[in-house]
Amino acid sequence: MAERSEKGKVAVVAMLLAGGVAASCGSSEEGSGSTDPGGDPSTADSGGGGNVIDPGGGGFNSRRDGGGGGDSGGFNACAADSQRGKPVPLSMAMMLDSSGSMWLRTQSGEFKWEVLKKALGSFINDPKSSGIGIGLQYFPRFQNNMPNRCTESAQCGSAGPCVLKACNDARGDHCTADTDCAQGATCSITLGQCHEEGEFKCRTDADCKTSYGDYGTCDPMIASYCAGGQDSCNIPDYSQPEIAFAELPGAAGAVTDSLATHFPNGYTPTSAALKGLENMAQAQMQAHPEHKVVGVFVTDGLPTKCDQSMPNIASIAAGALEAGIKTYVIGVFAQSEEPQAKPNLDLIANAGGTGTAFIVNTDQNASLELLKALSAIRGNALPCEFALPLPSTGVPDYGKVNVQFTGGGGDQRLFPYVANEAACDAAGGWHYDVDPAGGTPAKVQLCPTSCDSIKADAAGTIDILQGCKDAVVK
Q: Where do the record's region annotations for Disordered lie (predicted)?
């Protein structure tokens, strides 16, 4: 890309039926094992051979007792104490491309930057985004905290001047006074901006016909950039959100105000920006371990600054995934650019655990397509994770927890327990956030297949039952 002059929440109701339920699970058919809710999960119910549930069978009432016990109402008889819970909150760390090429126009005639602002505005004000936490930063950042836009040289400090005027000779260098121009020339030309890319400064329409392309007419300038500005490759510059994490819809006003003050300018330091995004996300996860945190990286260009190696950049997303943070990628490109852009952005998305990048085609309705991409990410990222509360009496017995899904039509399914995320397969299931043998679980997490199934049924409910031995696959 040309840079500067050189370039439902699935309506799942979570019911946590938690329990100090020793009395209700102490029937003879449970065998002679321990019924102490604080007991050893590995020894509980061992005398009866345990409960083996056929996931394709009759739900709770298809209990199979290896010790010869009969049907006694299954898990419904075990869940005596209930507590209502809710899905784990979602936080989205967002890194937005505000490089100079965001001044390029889309098929609708809007600048890419305007398309991004419109789509993001719709997303943050969508009732379906309510409750999501959002933190926001932009790239490129500039050295020495230089602003990314200016309307007067005083705003630039040592990185000035602000590029607003030019000498009236053939060279047309930018200037602030006649002394900046060659002998005989004056600093008398008020610069404009090329219609097709607002960062290109121009004196006449002819200045907008460059080797990079035809950028239309020379229009009055909205704002400019500091002449001495240099894009930063310093990762800490990108690691703190400009808009601190806050929950929607309350955070919407701050996001809208921030977008209004930014001005596309500079190159594309992808590596520094992506690493900053992952640092933002990890800091949020450490501050709020009860949240699920994901990164969203929006760009309209391939790397043109800092480390430009795509394998190295993809490894940043891979490192974040190891820390429990998935990275979603949105590319905003003309259709002619997609063959080159998509494979590179797919490298990042795949390494970040999200498969492939979303590509917004600027030759179509880019604003709508970008909103669709953000909405798809929201739907995919909304966690299939549910808090595991303490029972009203006693402590959790991690060997006596089961997860049931009741569809909108009343059908019930029992998800099998698996040891960890790596054990998930096409059959689905659930696992704890940490192994009970070595830690204290705080969440119940569904495997991807089971997660997809509940998201497909907006009227469904999840019940987490404590008190009966973990169901296993038949």
A: 23-80
